[in-house]
Amino acid sequence: MRGSFTLRYALLTLVLAIFAYLYGLDSRFAPKNGDEYPYMHIVRMTADSGSWLPLQSEMDGIKNTKPPLIFWQGIASTHWASQWSLENLRWPSVLYTALTALLLFLSVRRFSGKTQTGILAALVWLSFFATYRYGRPFLTDPPEVFWLSLPFFALLYWGKSAFESILLFPVLAGLSLGFALFAKSFAYIVPAAFALGLYYWHWRKWSIPQTLIRDLYKLILLGIIAIGIFSLWFFLDPNPEAVWREFVLGENAGKFSARSSSYLLDLVRGGDSIWMLALTTLANAGLFIFVLIATLLQCWRERRFMSTEESLLLLLIGAFFLVFSLPSQRSARYLLPVMPAFATLIAMHWDRLPLWGFRIALVLQAIVLALLLWLGVNLQISTLMGESGAWHYNPLHWFLMGLSLLLVIAGLIRREQCKAFALMACFLVYGALTSSLAPLEGQLGRFSVETIERVQSKDVWIPCDYRAKDEEYRLLLPGAQLHGYLAKDASDIEGLTKTYPIVAVHAPIGAAPALCDSCQLLGQRMEMRARHSDEEIKEMLLGKIAEHLFVVEYLVSTPAANSVASPGLLNVKDVCR
TM spans, by residue (predicted)? Predict the structure, then answer.
């Protein structure tokens, strides 16, 4: 392996990638999407019912929010919720992500004839922030990306034999796409079939008659198979009318309604415009966004000499982008299945890419690391922290921060290693991000065993700022009966202690809560705040981080436990629902 990415760099980067994706897999603060909480809730409720279907939920309007494959996956990985942990819920997602990276490596190595390019494609895709954010948590994206990618990269791997396959490839592609639909949505058959149609059209040298005669039946066959697999949901579910109403009409058809004034205005302006979709799709690359932009510019300059594989990859990207620009709700998350294609283009152009994109990536990494270092130092030396428990880092955290900064600086100085070090530093930044919040994963951010035992089977009210947020608290207070109140009221200690028998309240670090004489403190832990005012952000930038970034959460038993009105609290709408 010659060029700027040697075998030694490849092996070292692979080790760093494995470290980044496995480190902190069970972290409550891992980059993710809020959908993880509702998905966890549906898995737990369905597992408690003892049946695979119908899906169960206590949330209004959120039950059949996704096909059952992701929930069945969660039920299996947690052994019917008997081994309930984030790690058990998430490891299948990491496995799917690893299989997609392996698929990418094998197909790119095959058609490029270079092992280096195959390894690069897989590692670049893993370095994208969107891959890291959506490829580890308990979400629908990892299986969706894998099953959707499989037919396209199979065509690139086998080439002529796959394109000319009369029955075998269409059937296998239909099965693969069927699993993708069963994991995410039947709507994905539209961009997938459209992209495959463009693939066949390109293969027939843009001859419409030849494509219609020789390949149209293949698209129809694989479409029937894929939709057939998705339709099993209606046959297996005891309440198919609920699936139609909640998923088909509510979850999918509703995405075509105008978001603001009109469909056409939404298309060209605002947060759901086609321009924002293009920008956020590029932003899926995270720290490598300017490397991706440089690659696309390179593709444009070399368009007259573009290889067949490059053309097919760009057709795949274009097909998905065009289809997902049609719904009024446009999200770069829908374009996650084309990010492996973007990574492949970067790998194919790697040695010819200018350095400016990689240098910008290194500068962005340096900024992130500097902020994390500044945050960590301020928290470590904060005098306020001592009153609520010491914020203490393992020495390995400082080693990781130092190694990351040295690698970034070396990449900026050494021209020959700039590209390789920029790629390696992406994974170190992800590790540093997880390590910076590691103290909250330990005793500092958790209730004691004694506290957990004291609230077993008791009704506890906790702050909720997102639907099914109580699923996170079930990891902190296993065995308690949890109910949610508005998170914005968490600091109203007097009002909460007069209303709820056992309640979690928030107080600033360093300021003991004013509790009533008959109130009893059951336990406490530190929690990170999610929303801040402009004034608080300014003070945080001046060094007052602990005061505003974190709060102390106290679990309090109150006289309301003996109130005659307290049974009626159970009939009040749960904010987490």
Answer: 7-25, 89-106, 118-135, 141-159, 166-182, 188-204, 216-236, 274-300, 312-328, 334-350, 357-376, 396-413, 420-440
